From TrEMBL:
Full protein name: Endonuclease/exonuclease/phosphatase domain-containing protein
Molecular function, one GO term: 3'-5'-RNA exonuclease activity
Entries under InterPro entries matching the protein: CCR4/nocturin_mRNA_transcr (IPR050410), Endo/exonu/phosph_ase_sf (IPR036691), Endo/exonuclease/phosphatase (IPR005135)
Residues annotated as domain Endonuclease/exonuclease/phosphatase: 34-294
SUPFAM superfamilies linked: DNase I-like
Length: 352
C-alpha cells in the first residue's frame, strides 16, 4: 500500500477583490518570445489552471495547501474535480475571512473521519488569535482519515508558520508537538503505531529552532542539540528517502531526491532569496522506518543506513520538489510543491 502526501503554498490571490470566474480568463499564456516572461507574479486567474494541472499530474493521495483564500478554495475544488474532497476554514474568523490551510484528498484513496482547526497562539481555540511575536494570525488544520482499501487510520496536519516571529515559529512547533502527543496517547493503548503527517510552509529553514524542535535536532551536525523529552517528534522525508543503495524494493527506488529540491521557496523574481521551508514530515512513532540516525544531516550517499527490522513499516520511497515553471510558461507560485510517497513494506527484505 502507498500514500503520497504533498504540500503546496499556492500564493494568495492578491486581486481577490476582482474575482475572475473560471472559464473567462482568455489567453492566459504569454508568447514564448516575450522578453523575460518567466519572472514576475501573475494574477491568480492566470496561475490557477496550470497550478491545478500540477496537482492532477502528481496525483497525491492528500495535499495540504497554504495561503488559500476562500475564492481560491472554490477554484481548486472545481479544477480538481468531483473526485477530490476538501476541508478547511479561514484563519481570521474560522469561517471565510483571511487565508486558510485546507487539506484536499482523493476520495478513491481516503475518507475523512474528523477534522480539527486550531490557532498558533496561547489561545489555540480562538479564531483570529495572534501568538507571541507573530505578525498576523496563523492556524493549523488536523484531519483524520481512513484509507478506502483497508480502513487504515492516518492523520494529516497542515500549517503555515509566521514569517516574522522567530519565537512564534518555535512556539508553534511546541504547540503542534503537544497535539501529536495527545494523538499518540489516545492511540497507543490499542497497540498501534499511529501514522501522522505534518505538511506546510514552516517559514523556518533547518538552521532555526522552529524546524529543529519539530525534528528534535535530528538533522543537525553542529552539536547544538538540547535535551528534549516527553514528545513524539517528526522525521523529515527529505532526509529519510530510501534509495537504490538500500536493499529493499530496489527496482522502484530513486537514486536521490527528485527535482528542484535545493529550494522550495523561489519567490517570483530572478534573484529572489531561495530556501527550503516547505516540508512533508512524518511522526517518529515507530510506524515509519528511518534511514538517517540522529545527528545526521544528509543520507543521500552510499553510506545510507539500511534498516533490518524485518517487520512491516512505512518507508519513504519517493521525495521530490516539483518545478513551479515549465517551458514557455510562468511561475505558478512563489513556492514549489513538495511530494513524498510512503510505502508499507517489510523493511530489510525484498519487495513483497
Amino acid at each position: 500500500m502507498e500514500l503520497t502526501i504533498a504540500s503546496f503554498n499556492i500564493r494568495y490571490d492578491t486581486q481577490a477583490f476582482n474575482i475572475v470566474p473560471l472559464g473567462s480568463e482568455g489567453d492566459i499564456f504569454p508568447r514564448v518570445n516575450t522578453s523575460n516572461v518567466e519572472w514576475g507574479e501573475r494574477p491568480w486567474y492566470q496561475r490557477r489552471a496550470p497550478l491545478a494541472d500540477q496537482v492532477l499530474w502528481e496525483n497525491p493521495s492528500v495535499i495540504g495547501f497554504q495561503e488559500v483564500l476562500w475564492n481560491q478554495i472554490g477554484d481548486l475544488a472545481q479544477l480538481l474535480g468531483e473526485g477530490w474532497g476538501w476541508t478547511g476554514v479561514c484563519r481570521n474568523d474560522g469561517k471565510r475571512q483571511g487565508e486558510a490551510v485546507p487539506i484536499f484528498w482523493r476520495k478513491e484513496v481516503a475518507t475523512l473521519k474528523n477534522v480539527e482547526h486550531f490557532w498558533l497562539s496561547d489561545t489555540p481555540e480562538k479564531p483570529g488569535s495572534v501568538g507571541w511575536d507573530a505578525g498576523q494570525t496563523r492556524m493549523a488544520t488536523l484531519a483524520e482519515f481512513t484509507t478506502v482499501k483497508n480502513e487504515l487510520t492516518f492523520y494529516v496536519f497542515n500549517t503555515h508558520y509566521d514569517e516574522r516571529g522567530l519565537q512564534a515559529r518555535t512556539e508553534s512547533s511546541k504547540l503542534i508537538l503537544d497535539h501529536v502527543d495527545k494523538l499518540v496517547d489516545r492511540i497507543s493503548p490499542s497497540g498501534q503505531a499511529p501514522l501522522i503527517f505534518l505538511v506546510g510552509d514552516l517559514n523556518s529553514p533547518d538552521t532555526e529552532d522552529g524546524y529543529r524542535s519539530l525534528t528534535r535536532w535530528r538533522y543537525v551536525d553542529d552539536g547544538s542539540s538540547p535535551q528534549q523529552g516527553g514528545h513524539t517528534f517528526f522525521l523529515d522525508s527529505r532526509y529519510e528517502l530510501h534509495t537504490r543503495v538500500s536493499n529493499f524494493n530496489t527496482a522502484r527506488l530513486l537514486g536521490a531526491r527528485y527535482g528542484d529540491w535545493l529550494a522550495t521557496f523561489t519567490g517570483f523574481g530572478e534573484h529572489d532569496h531561495r530556501n527550503v521551508i516547505d516540508v512533508v514530515l512524518v511522526a517518529d512513532t515507530g510506524a515509519v522506518a528511518a534511514v538517517s540516525p540522529a545527528g545526521t544531516r544528509d543520507r543521500q550517499d552510499n553510506a545510507q543506513k539500511v534498516m533490518q527490522t524485518g517487520q512491516q513499516q512505512w518507508a519513504v520511497t519517493r521525495y521530490g520538489v516539483i518545478p513551479n515553471r515549465f517551458e514557455g510558461g510562468f511561475l505558478v507560485s512563489d513556492h514549489r510543491m513538495v511530494v513524498a510517497t510512503f510505502k508499507q513494506t517489510v523493511v530489510g527484505l525484498p519487495e513483497l
